[in-house]
Specification:
Mean pLDDT: 92
Number of strands: 14
Strand content: over 45%
Structural class: mainly beta
Largest sheet: 3 strands, antiparallel
Distance between the termini: 44 Å
Order of helices and strands: EEEEEEEEEEEEEE
Strand order of the largest sheet: 3-4-7
Low-confidence stretches: none
Helix content: under 10%
Number of helices: 0
Amino acid sequence: EDLTNVLPGEYSVEVEGSNGCSAFMFFDVEMSSPDETNICIVTVDTITNSNLIVWNPLNASDVVSYNIYKESSQSGLYFLVANQSADSLSEYFDYASNPAIRSWRYKVAAVDDCGNEAELSEPHKPIHLTSNKGISGEVNLIWDHYNGFSYDTYYIYRYHPSTGWMTIDSVGSSNISYTDLAPPGDSSLIYMIGITSPTT
C-alpha cells in the first residue's frame, strides 16, 4: 500500500479481486522542492573578522542541507560557496572574503533528501564601513546600506582602551556618513556601524 523513494511521474495501481475482476487507479507523483529559506542577517564576526551568514532553518524532516551562494563580480550572478548539513547550526562563516575590503551579497537555499533545491532566498548584504582622519583630528565615517530587510536607525559605536565599546550616536537609515568631531586623541580607535535585525 506504500510506494516510497520513487521519481516524479504517473503511477497506476491495480487491485484484483478473487473473482478475477480488476480495478485501476492512476496517480501523479509531482516533484516538490523545499520551502524558501529566509536569511536572518549577514554580519561581520568580530572574532574571526569574516562574514557570518545566519538563516532560519526550515522545520521540515526532508531537508538535509543548505546551499550557501555568494554574488560574483557580475551583479546578480551567484555561485555556490558551501553546502552545510541541516544538523549543523544554521550559520556559515565566509573565511574566503575579507570584509575590510568590501561587502558581498549572499543567498541560501534548502536541499531535500531527494536532492531537490528550493528557490534561492532573497539576497542579504552586510554594511561596509570606511574611515579617514580629517585635518583637525576628526574621524570621518562612510558606509553603505545593509540590504535584506527594513530598519530605521544606524548605531555608531566607538572603541577606545580607556572607555571600551560605547555608542556615540545614532542616525536615520537614510544616512551613510558621520563625523566624530572630538574623538580621543590617539590612534587606538575602532569604529563599528550597527543595525537592529527585525528577527531574533
